[in-house]
Write a structure and sequence with these properties.
Radius of gyration: 16 Å
Strand content: 35-45%
Largest sheet: 5 strands, antiparallel
Structural class: mainly beta
Strand order of the largest sheet: 8-7-6-1-10
Oligomer: single chain
Helix content: under 10%
Order of helices and strands: EEEEEEEEEEHEEH
Distance between the termini: 18 Å
Shape: globular
Number of helices: 2
Number of strands: 12
Length: about 170
């Protein structure tokens, strides 16, 4: 898959000293909200790409995390992410945008979380995957059916994509 937007609502239990890490995978890039370090990070093969910005994450607070990978015809592009309080309007600017000379051409979407010593729960809700990719993969006759993640070429990304009426409506508007 390529040129899609992956977003979700995320939260972690914890206190000011200990929180979990929550992230989304977009086109083989990890977009991570790291509660303990209070950063939003973009990485892929840590030697190749690893950039972050400060993000004032608080425990027991819902955030919305949105990701997009943009690849130009020359292979360059950017990995972009936004994070904001869930009950606030979406900011216009990306919280982090990492420009790269060589962007991964394709990659599966995914979600992940790390809980320090299984102490602090992680919550993920309202996962949304959208983009032009659905014009090729889905049609309205598939509404309500389940697709196994055979689309994924990554053995670490497992799961099921639930085809919803919302996606079918998206296809109908394109």
């Amino acid at each position: 898959l390529s040129d899609y937007v992956l977003e979700a609502d995320v939260a972690t239990d914890g206190n000011r000293r200990v929180m979990s890490t929550i992230g989304l995978v977009n086109q083989r890039y990890l977009i991570t909200l790291d509660g303990n370090r209070r950063i939003l990070e973009v990485s892929s093969n840590h030697e190749r790409v690893k950039e972050s910005v400060k993000f004032p994450m608080r425990p027991n607070t819902w955030y919305h995390l949105k990701t997009h990978v943009l690849r130009g015809e020359n292979g360059g592009g950017s990995v972009r992410a936004k994070a904001w309080l869930r009950d606030q309007p979406e900011p216009e600017d990306w919280t982090i945008e990492v420009k790269l000379d060589d962007v991964h051409e394709k990659g599966a979407p995914g979600i992940f979380a790390f809980s320090p010593q299984v102490q602090k729960r992680v919550y993920i809700d309202n996962i949304k995957l959208s983009g032009k990719v659905f014009q090729v993969l889905l049609d309205t006759s598939m509404v309500g059916k389940t697709l196994p993640s055979v689309i994924s070429s990554s053995s670490t990304v497992k799961g099921i994509i639930r085809v919803s009426h919302e996606i079918a409506r998206y296809i109908g508007t394109q």
